[in-house]
Structure formats: C-alpha cells, structure tokens
Amino acid sequence: MIVKQLSVFLENKSGRLARVTEILGENNINIRALSIADTTDFGILRLIVNKPNEAYKLLKEEQFMVSLTDVIAVEVPDKPGGLAGVLKILEPYNINIEYLYAFVEKSSNNALVVFRVEELEKAIKILTDNGVKVLAGNEVYSL
C-alpha cells in the first residue's frame, strides 16, 4: 500500500520544470499527480508517475537531484468535509502529516489524496482499520 514518489530539486530558472516533463514524456512515463513548492531560488517538485524507478534513473542520468520517497494514496469522499473526516481518524494517534496533495484523477466517486506521514505503516493500519481505502502502488500508477 506504499506509493513511490519522486522529489526533484529544481533551480528556480526558466526551462527546468519543462526539461523534467520532457524527459518523462520522451520515455513514456505518465505523471499521475504532482505538487511543487518553491522559493525565490529553488523548488521541490513532487511527482507520482507510472514508472517511478525508471523515472528516478532517467532524471539522475540527466543530473537532476532526485529522491524516491514512500507516501500513501488515500481515497477521500469527494464532498464537503471529506478530507476532514479522514484527517480526524489520524488525529487521536498523533500521526503528523508532513504534506499532502491531490491527484489529477478520481477513483469512483472519491477524490485521491497523497499523504506524506512520519509513521507510514501505522497510518496505513489506522486508516484501513477505520474503513478508509489506501491504494497500493500498482493501483495508483495505472490510474
């Protein structure tokens, strides 16, 4: 139920983001979800792709600073308060969410959200024990 996420360190200059997406596109790697956080000097691009290990290797070969991080992808009811309900499940267990972002696509009538948490296996167990669907990597990569 763990999903591999690419984190790419990008200098905040013209063409760097375009180059990453170009490399992925040229190698038939599809972006499933992404987030970018930036400052005036640099940004961190977080990506879920259909072939994470291959993408990692390609970006390394092109001299990008890239890492693979374990995250979870969770189905969240696509209605007001849906995300709050899932977060409330984790709250009593002191699971810290470092960051989260949404997917481009939905799963059935639910939204998909990527969570980076400190205690991954514990969070997965708590969520699944409470009826929240946590998707496996192969499910996410093939959406």
From TrEMBL:
Residue span(s) of domain ACT: 5-79
InterPro entries: ACT-like_dom_sf (IPR045865), ACT_dom (IPR002912), ACT_dom_pair (IPR045739)
Protein name: ACT domain-containing protein
Biological source species: Carboxydothermus ferrireducens DSM 11255
